[in-house]
Write a structure and sequence with these properties.
The chain is mainly alpha-helical. The protein has 20 helices and ten strands. It has a two-stranded antiparallel ribbon with strand order 1-5. α4 packs antiparallel against α6, α5 packs across α6 and α13 crosses α15. It is globular, with a radius of gyration of 30 Å. It starts with a helix and ends in a 6-residue tail after the last helix. It is found in: Cell membrane. Pfam families: Cytochrom_B_N_2. One of its GO terms (cellular component) is plasma membrane. Its cofactor is heme.
């Protein structure tokens, strides 16, 4: 009470409001901060650990930007040759590029430079790993469905741009390892029929390696790609807020509400602490685990190749495709086409496009145009889950192919045997992964159905008066019953009668036939186990179903 009186007296004495309030009023009158904050600060976020995966990506990106700004103060993006006179004795007197020389200076002479370099590189790897896992969470739970198809595409573009940003980033030091990767990319570009040589000349400013590619990669790495990514992140977050957050099925959770905690102050406090946790973990990893020690590899020379040169994990898929592809060549119209490189170069973007458009494919198969804010359990969408696991299996197989030389030396195997294994597994592995995953999901659905109808096994054995031994089952509570039965099951699309009531044969388009076939594969008898109905549950629970 006394405080209120004092503030009123102070306002009356001065004839105006306190400075903080005046600043807030000034800002609100020009940018509408108060109304914006009032509408969004109490926004509800569900509390589930998997939703934090996206935040790992966001915080890693912030760390990348902060450390990247620091590194740009000392890095010289030039391929002009200078003589190295730094503290690393084995390289003293050697001719190196200014890019390599400045990276060595950052690593050995700038205070904290090596740690910042390591944090920057590790944050990039974790950023991409976080996006990979986050996208898999979105995929397996069906969070990409309407109205979030566009947001899925934004996330996909962020992942692809992150891959190329990472590639341009680790190519900047101009060391032997990164130079080998750039040479690999140049070979892929040259394999493009007819225009490959022109593309290579445009990219490198002449014959490889030229004198411009570091400066060009630098511009793309610090300006072009991060700028586009920043815009996509802002758009991604705006759509997350606009569409409201998805949530797992549970009591009180519907398609029209969100159950969780408000942004302010609960979620904001948790998010702030989580940012420093992510920053701390990345810093510890960077301090303990060395990454890309360019002083060991030395400067890039076109006549040398680093033994055991491997790309970062997110580019391993593309390299694996090229390594295991047979070296086929054909002559066409006076041009030699290197199919051994060109075919994998075409497969890689096709796989990426398939991932980008999957939400639209599934929407077309189901014919469902409604909004979805309740997530699926992966087991309740066996075909989709099988497709996702098949793709991950495919990726891992190609990753093995991209490191076939290291796998051979570490496990004392023949590199030819590994190559042939990858070639066969490329076709067989995803199919087996899909079949096994789908069967596991169907088995879990059967177990859930049995739990709903008969209850949970207690481990207690009871003997009936007539001598029969049974296990006592405990009925599930309402929350568990809701979780196990909340999912929606689609009916497969039907082509319908091919002949109308007048006996006239109806023409069915190939697209309609394909949709019906895919829909049957997704939601037919072999695509899902029918969940128990209310009548079945009442019949068993009110009778002798629970012992």
């Amino acid at each position: 009470m006394s405080t209120t009186t004092t503030n009123e007296n102070e306002t009356d004495r001065r004839g105006k409001a306190p400075a903080g309030e005046r600043v807030a009023d000034w800002a609100d009158g020009r940018v509408g901060i108060y109304s914006l904050a009032k509408a969004n600060m109490r926004k509800v976020f569900p509390d589930h650990w998997s939703f934090m995966l996206g935040e790992v990506c966001l915080y890693s990106f912030i760390i990348i930007i902060l450390t990247g700004v620091y590194l740009t103060l000392f890095f010289h993006p030039s391929m002009n040759e200078v003589e190295y006179h730094g503290p690393y004795v084995p390289l003293q007197g050697q001719l190196v590029s200014e890019a390599f020389n400045s990276t060595m200076k950052i690593s050995f002479e700038v205070r904290g430079g090596l740690l910042i370099r390591q944090i920057h590189h590790w944050a990039a790897l974790i950023f991409l790993a976080g996006m990979f896992v986050h996208m898999m969470r979105v995929f397996f739970t069906g969070a990409f469905r309407k109205p979030r198809e566009v947001n899925w595409v934004f996330g996909f573009l962020l992942f692809v741009l992150g891959m190329f940003t990472g590639f341009t980033g680790y190519s900047l030091p101009d060391d032997l390892l990164s130079g080998t990767g750039v040479r690999f990319m140049e070979g892929a570009v040259l394999s493009v029929p007819i225009v490959g040589t022109y593309l290579s000349f445009f990219l490198f400013g002449g014959e490889f390696p030229g004198v411009d590619f570091v400066a060009r990669f630098y511009s793309a790495h610090v300006l072009l790609l991060p700028g586009i990514m920043l815009g996509l992140i802002v758009a991604h977050l705006i759509l997350v807020v606009y569409h409201k957050h998805t949530q797992f099925a549970g009591p009180g959770r519907t398609e029209k509400n969100v159950v969780g905690m408000p942004l302010m102050p609960v979620y904001m406090a948790k998010a702030g602490g989580y940012f420093f946790l992510v920053f701390g973990v990345i810093s510890v990893i960077a301090a303990l685990v060395s990454l890309n020690p360019i002083w060991v590899l030395g400067p890039y020379r076109p006549d040398m190749v680093s033994t055991g040169a491997q790309p970062d994990w997110y580019m391993g898929f593309s390299e694996g495709l090229i390594r295991v592809m047979p070296g086929w060549e054909i002559n066409f119209a006076g041009h030699t086409l290197a199919l051994g490189v060109f075919i994998p170069l075409m497969v890689f973007p096709l796989v990426l496009v398939a991932i980008a458009v999957y939400p639209f494919i599934e929407s077309w198969v189901t014919g469902d145009k409604r909004e979805h804010h309740i997530l699926d359990r992966p087991r309740n969408a066996p075909t989709r889950t099988g497709v996702g696991v098949a793709w991950i299996t495919w990726y891992v197989i190609m990753l093995i192919g991209g490191g076939n030389d290291l796998v051979a030396t570490h496990f004392h195997l023949s590199i030819n045997s590994i190559t042939w294994f990858v070639r066969i597994a490329f076709f067989v592995g995803p199919v087996l992964a899909f079949i096994i995953t789908k069967r596991i999901c169907l088995g879990l659905q059967r177990r859930d159905r049995d739990k709903v109808l008969h209850g949970r096994e207690t481990g207690i054995i009871k003997r009936l008066p007539h001598g029969e031994f049974i296990e006592v089952h405990e009925p599930l509570n309402q929350e568990a019953l809701h979780t196990l039965t909340a999912h929606e099951q689609y009916k497969p699309a039907e082509i319908g009668p091919l002949v109308d009531e007048n006996g006239v044969k109806r023409k069915v388009s190939p697209v309609e036939k394909l949709r019906a076939k895919l829909s049957k594969g997704y939601y037919g008898e072999q695509g899902q186990i029918e969940k128990p109905s209310v009548e079945e549950y009442k019949e068993i629970s009110e009778g002798h179903g629970h012992h």
